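Researcher: We're teaching a course module on how sequence relates to structure. For the next exercise, students receive a sequence and then see the predicted structure as tokens, so they can try to spot secondary structure elements on their own. Here is the exercise chain.
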Amino acid sequence: VKEQGMHLTLKFLGEIDEARVFQVKKLMEETTASFKTFSLKLRGTGFFPPNPKYPRVLWIGTVSEATLLELQERLESGLEGLGFARENRPFHPHLTLGRVKNPSGLRDVITELEKAKEAEFGEMSVARITLFQSTLKPTGAEYTVLYESPLL
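Model: And here is the predicted structure for the students to work with:
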């Protein structure tokens, strides 16, 4: 993925209309009002699904951070209250490195990801959450910021 498109997804909403965007913005404001900026350590690599012959997403993981997990759960619960379906898979915070269109020739990449599955990649400051509009293009997803809500 392009560096400017790298992000950690807290919740994928799908296509929503302007009225829903307004509701989501309000929920974001309410949620971030009780969270302070925090650090997130990046550690480990992997791929989804976990079958090395047919991965679709290559990623860098994060160290389990209670603040991030609480923030995501509050958003998930609030969005459920707005009528969005709750995600049925456990939250697995990660930064997507790339998406696989064709698995041929990936053996070396998977080998390198396996070598780095416990590697440390530094840390980042989490100071806001962002509502993005994603537009899929042949060159990859293009993200437009619709709204940002700062943490304290």
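Model: If you want an answer key for the exercise: The chain has a mean pLDDT of 95. The first strand starts at residue 38 and ends at 48.
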